[in-house]
């Protein structure tokens, strides 16, 4: 079932880069930017993470908590965070449970080859836990502007 603006954001529990359990429901009362991205240390994903890093203060000032999520391991996330000095947690969804809940693990097509992968999508979740916005056409180098505007 496709998620829509206004629908309840599916709750989840998953571990971040340090093995700390993160539950979406713990952020009730805060706005959450939950961004799904394909792979640590690839050009587009690095540009996106660094844009969020560079505009992190503005996002915090607007009341947002930022959570990145991919199917990479905790160890991969640790390296990505260290290399690019990312100030927000990255969730390791290796078993794709959260991806399935948000319908971001889908068939993709690249140069005529079809395969399963993460569809880069950002969910902006309001203080009540509802989806306020879904950004499917993510501009990796100006993603913060897409969220803040």
From TrEMBL:
<dbReference type="InterPro" id="IPR013766">
    <property type="entry name" value="Thioredoxin_domain"/>
</dbReference>
<dbReference type="GO" id="GO:0008379">
    <property type="term" value="F:thioredoxin peroxidase activity"/>
</dbReference>
<dbReference type="InterPro" id="IPR036249">
    <property type="entry name" value="Thioredoxin-like_sf"/>
</dbReference>
<keyword id="KW-0676">Redox-active center</keyword>
<dbReference type="InterPro" id="IPR024706">
    <property type="entry name" value="Peroxiredoxin_AhpC-typ"/>
</dbReference>
<comment type="subunit">
    <text>Monomer.</text>
</comment>
<feature type="domain" description="Thioredoxin">
    <location>
        <begin position="3"/>
        <end position="149"/>
    </location>
</feature>
<feature type="active site" description="Cysteine sulfenic acid (-SOH) intermediate; for peroxidase activity">
    <location>
        <position position="45"/>
    </location>
</feature>
<comment type="function">
    <text>Thiol-specific peroxidase that catalyzes the reduction of hydrogen peroxide and organic hydroperoxides to water and alcohols, respectively. Plays a role in cell protection against oxidative stress by detoxifying peroxides and as sensor of hydrogen peroxide-mediated signaling events.</text>
</comment>
<keyword id="KW-0560">Oxidoreductase</keyword>
<dbReference type="GO" id="GO:0034599">
    <property type="term" value="P:cellular response to oxidative stress"/>
</dbReference>
<comment type="similarity">
    <text>Belongs to the peroxiredoxin family. BCP/PrxQ subfamily.</text>
</comment>
<dbReference type="InterPro" id="IPR000866">
    <property type="entry name" value="AhpC/TSA"/>
</dbReference>
<protein>
    <recommendedName>
        <fullName>thioredoxin-dependent peroxiredoxin</fullName>
        <ecNumber>1.11.1.24</ecNumber>
    </recommendedName>
</protein>
<dbReference type="GO" id="GO:0045454">
    <property type="term" value="P:cell redox homeostasis"/>
</dbReference>
<keyword id="KW-1015">Disulfide bond</keyword>
<dbReference type="Pfam" id="PF00578">
    <property type="entry name" value="AhpC-TSA"/>
</dbReference>
<dbReference type="InterPro" id="IPR050924">
    <property type="entry name" value="Peroxiredoxin_BCP/PrxQ"/>
</dbReference>
<dbReference type="GO" id="GO:0005737">
    <property type="term" value="C:cytoplasm"/>
</dbReference>
<keyword id="KW-0575">Peroxidase</keyword>
<keyword id="KW-0049">Antioxidant</keyword>
């Amino acid at each position: 079932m496709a998620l829509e603006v206004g629908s309840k954001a599916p709750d989840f529990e998953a571990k971040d880069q340090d093995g700390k359990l993160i539950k979406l429901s713990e952020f009730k009362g805060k706005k959450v930017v939950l961004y799904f991205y394909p792979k640590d240390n690839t050009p587009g994903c690095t540009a996106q993470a660094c844009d969020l890093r560079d505009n992190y203060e503005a996002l915090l000032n607007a009341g947002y908590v930022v959570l990145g999520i991919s199917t990479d391991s905790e160890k991969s996330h640790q390296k990505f965070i260290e290399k690019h000095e990312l100030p927000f947690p990255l969730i390791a969804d290796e078993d794709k449970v959260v991806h399935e809940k948000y319908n971001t693990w889908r068939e993709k097509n690249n140069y005529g080859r079809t395969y399963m992968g993460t569809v880069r999508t950002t969910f902006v979740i309001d203080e009540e836990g509802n989806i306020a916005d879904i950004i499917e056409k993510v501009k990796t180098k100006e993603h913060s502007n897409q969220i803040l505007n």
